[in-house]
Amino acid sequence: VQLQACGGGLVQAGASRRLSCLASGRAFSMYNLGWFRQAPGKVREFVAAINWSGSLTRYADSVKGRFTISRDNAKNTAYLEINTLKAEDTAVYYCAALKSYYSDAYYYWGQGTQVTVSS
Question: Which pLDDT tens digit goes with each residue over 42-89?
């Protein structure tokens, strides 16, 4: 499966943004999916994960309550809704097909989308 994150851009602090992870391939619904981000000069970090059916989600402590991960298997798309954007959310956001819902290890890694938060 090939993945492409999109929906980033320049956004005002306090605003919301929804990122999409578009997938090609018929096996999309078989994969657990994750979102990661990498801020300038920082290591990549896990953000959120969702299981293959969408019934389970988990989040990094740093984003709990502000980020929501979801998916629509009929559209081969996953989403990351970011609310109350902060300057520290500025990063390149990536989606990935995970080897396990509970693990950050991945089978496939997508192209990222840049989110820049202006104050």
Answer: 999 999 999 999 999 999 999 999 999 999 999 999 999 999 999 999
CB atoms within 10 A of CB 64: 10
The residue type found at 73 is N
Closest among 41, 39, 40 to 63, alpha carbons compared: 39
pLDDT at 90: 98
Identify whether the C-beta of residue 102 lies closer than 8 Å to the C-beta of residue 6: no
Distant-in-sequence contacts of 80-83, Cβ < 8 A, 24+ apart: 80/18, 80/19, 80/21, 80/35, 80/47, 80/48, 81/16, 81/17, 81/18, 81/19, 82/16, 82/17, 82/18, 82/19, 82/115, 83/16
Percent of residues, the chain, with pLDDT higher than 70? 100
User: How, if at all, do strands 9-12 and 2-6 pair?
Assistant: unpaired
**Over 80: is that where the pLDDT of 26 sits?**
no
